[in-house]
Amino acid sequence: MNGHFTRATAQYVIIYMMLTAPMNFLFHELDGTPLTLWWAYIPVATIKIYISYHYLNALGLWHRFGTKALGFAVTMRIIFQAPWMMLLIGSVLFIRGQRKKFN
Prior knowledge:
Layout: H1 2-29, H2 38-58, H3 62-80, H4 84-102
């Protein structure tokens, strides 16, 4: 199970960063923010949420903890401009640690 977690997390990070790098380049070149370039930000953010769903589903966490973890990460992104990919991975690590403790 640990190898599956590592592989799924690596795939998630690679795909997420492949979407993030062009957006950061676009924001830098056009001197924009997600609010001024919403036409580019919304589709990419939607795709990132979709791949986050598949990441949590691949780990078997979606049905019980996935909505809470993803909701927490996106809420922190909206409120504090936090890097929600790291918050999501941190949530997954916390949940996995709690599951091992009680099993």
